[in-house]
């Protein structure tokens, strides 16, 4: 689960740069902090289980097993959760 630590390190970078833990002071930093923004992007893709990233290999086996057993309802919930988790991280950065 290296993607979690990547996201925490990027969040620490933002907190250090703005000298605050207030979310209202953290908006619009994508252009001002491009490396941190890219780090968040990579972490979000891994967290979403995007192919080629570390999260894909852990989530892929769970989703594959659910599809094999035709457990469509849990499969759809987990796919939606993976998408929303990554989406929320990306939206917070911008």
Name the descriptors.
mainly alpha; elongated; 94 residues; 0% strand
**Beta strands, count:** 0
Range of helix content: over 70%
Number of helix segments? Answer: 4
Cα distance spanning the termini: 24 Å
- Element-level helix/strand string: HHHH
What sort of overall outline do the alpha carbons produce when their principal axes are compared?
elongated
Offer a concise description of the structure.
The chain has helices spanning 2-18, 34-48, 54-68, 72-93.
Word description of this protein:
The chain is mainly alpha-helical. Helices cover 73% and strands 0% of the residues. It has 4 helices and no strands. The relative contact order is 0.15. The model has no long low-confidence stretch (mean pLDDT 81).
Detail the topology: elements first, then pairings:
Elements: H1 2-18, H2 34-48, H3 54-68, H4 72-93
């Amino acid at each position: 689960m290296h993607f979690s630590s990547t996201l925490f390190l990027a969040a620490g970078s933002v907190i250090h740069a703005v000298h605050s833990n207030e979310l209202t002071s953290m908006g619009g930093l994508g252009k001002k902090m491009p490396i941190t923004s890219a780090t968040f992007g990579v972490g979000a893709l891994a967290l979403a289980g995007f192919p080629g990233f570390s999260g894909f290999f852990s989530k892929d086996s769970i989703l594959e097993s659910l599809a094999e057993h035709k457990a469509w309802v849990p499969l759809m919930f987990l796919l939606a959760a993976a998408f929303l988790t990554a989406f929320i991280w990306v939206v917070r950065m911008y």
